[in-house]
Amino acid sequence: MALEELLGHLGAALVSFAVLVTTQVSANAEQAEARMNAELDAAWASRERVAQMLLHRVRLHPHAWQLHGSLLAEVDRILDELSLEHRSRRLMEELDRASARQRERLAWLYRYDWSRRLLRLAERAVGLLPSRAR
Fold first, then answer.
1. N or C terminus: fewer CB in 10 A for the chain?
2. 77, 9 in Cβ contact below 8 A?
């Protein structure tokens, strides 16, 4: 029963996360964020109950400790991945990767000194330099 409740909250949090990352309207995103946080809080509370239940079962059946431990470890990993801190860190990492890809793709632009060329074009446009001056 406790494990079923935990997995129910975990599933609802995952659904809310999917809504959060796919929605474009900020009001819907805020609602999804609130639902997800509520489900995560409930999942953490359920996780504690499941941990106590599994600890009791391990005492009765010591050979099952590895299965119970790995189950809790995976639940912890998923809950941690969905936490706000982890999502913020992942977003920053993704932004860093995107900017690195952009720099790689446009590396030739960074090697060229555009500032002097743009300054000359601007000066020519306002008539400060003759059109043939370089």
1. C
2. no
Find the angle CA(19)-CA(24)-CA(28) to the nearest 5 degrees: 55
What value, to the nearest 5°, has the Cα angle with vertex 99 and ends 117 and 109? 20
Query: How far is the C-alpha of 29 from the C-alpha of 22, rounded, in Å?
Result: 9
pLDDT tens across 36-90, in order? Answer: 999 999 999 999 999 999 989 889 988 888 888 899 999 999 998 888 888 777 7
User: Do residues 15 and 62 make contact, with C-beta atoms less than 8 angstroms apart?
Assistant: no
DSSP letter (8 states) at residue 131: T
Burial of 9 (0-12, 13-18, 19+ CB in 10 A): buried
Tokens for 105, please give them.
């793709």
- CA-CA distance, 21 to 87, in Å (whole number)? 11
